[in-house]
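Troubleshooting entry. Yesterday's outputs looked truncated, so today I'm pasting the complete records for two proteins to confirm everything comes through intact. If either block looks cut off, that's the bug. Protein one:
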Amino acid sequence: MTLAADVIAPFDEAGIEAVIREHVETRAPLAIRGAGTRAGLGRPVEAAPLSTARLTGITLFEPSELVIAAKAGTPVAEVEAELARAGQRLAFEPFDHRPLYRTTGEPTIGGLVATNASGPRRVQTGAARDALIGVRLVTGRGEAIRAGGRVMKNVTGYDITKLAAGSHGTLGVITEATFKTLPIAESETTLVIEGLDDAHGVAALCAGMGSPYEVSGAAHLPGEGGAPARTLLRLENFANQLRYRAGELADRLRSFGPAERLAPDDSRALWRSVAQAAPYLGPADRAVWRVSVAPTRAPGLVALLRDLALAHVYDWSGGLIWIATSPEGDAGAARLRALTRELRGHATLVRAPDAVRAAVGVFEPEAPALAKLSEKVRAAFDPAGVLNPGKMHDRRA
């Protein structure tokens, strides 16, 4: 891997510790990164870049125990390839941000954990956080700590493993992660119902998820450019089971219209595009929001944003809405967040110019009590405030 000359990239955990201690002494901030494929996520951080890209390698793999561990700079693709050889996978379907940001390189395990990057199968198996059972990280004190292990277990005090997932490098530099894995499904199919509007499409998704047929993907793609809308429900397991389950599910959903069944390869290709989201959101200069709300409220929210949303896609049975807006002004932040808050949801600005992300914030503003608690947790791990300062929230506000 080629790294820019200004990137600090130690070869081991001890080197990470040394760099952080040096920056604590001088109170000089650090911008934590892996391979940089998710660099556009979060508020801009002006600081010396510290990369884990050289911390590579799978450190533990026990197929019989369904456990794998890898250093933070290990490409996600390398871990997935090793698992595939044993007939296993990371069940949460890691989300790849490269199509959204038009970045190159290979997403790393550390970046996956730091952003809790989870794809369509999260609706069935949970997020990256739920599969993460152990983590090593170097705190803002320059101390390496280990949390969790090779099996699921209860903990006392801080659940550091869960805290690390989605912390965006603000609590510590992740150096290693351990995951619980699952077997790869023998086959899959997707039921496709065409022509539904958003309300009926999400209703069909909810009906499918409420069925006993173990739906592992539920997305609604509004029609664009004259193409019909498509409502997608994925089923995975043994081929002989899928024939029965797909037939029963199609029968249950017959009031929404006839359902086409996709062949396994066609189904996999379709969900790869759904997992990327970007193919359905239009040009790369648009701002992109990731909105979480109760599925039954999602179509109503989008209807209220018709003049703001340039494109949108529903995933997670409607519980996740990708919305593209103009990057001008606040990218629609004030109006979108006000409406989302009324529905008890939250919105994250996933893609926008640096100036917009710095001005309006990226993550949902925290309530005062929660902000105070978050600051206390952050101070316990990084008292000098040198790790990705301001990456998640502007603490000067």
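Protein two, checking that the full record survives here as well:
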Amino acid sequence: MRKIAAFLSGLLFGVGLLLAGMANPAKVLGFLDLAGRWDPSLALVMVAAIGVASPFFGWARRRDRALLGGTMQLPQRRDLDARLIGGSLLFGVGWGVAGICPGPALVTFAAGYWQAALFCLAMLAGMGLYTAFEARREAQGRTA
């Protein structure tokens, strides 16, 4: 049941990305181009998504178990540190350069665009580097 729920959730997310235009790099770059021909439509999509998700996050915070029985895994930290800010900047620069972020990249890749395939390879390489650096950082923390 969990795999079916995960599949359906991913499918709903992907369809939402397509309908909102988030899988179209030109539309995303138009949204990010504040000094040129700015396209505010994605801001409306984001505001709508926040409005829909907020009540559910409030509901989830009051629970210790997910609907399908798993443990509720919500972020606990609320502080801003250098790693969070650096990661956010790196994500934003990548989004601005490519016009693609991870969710839409997978949708665009599934549609057969070679640019998205290249983006996904770079994304996987970045995930691998992160995992390697975290493992090294954790190992150094144990020996210190």
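Both blocks look complete. Sanity check on protein two: The chain has one domain: 2-143.
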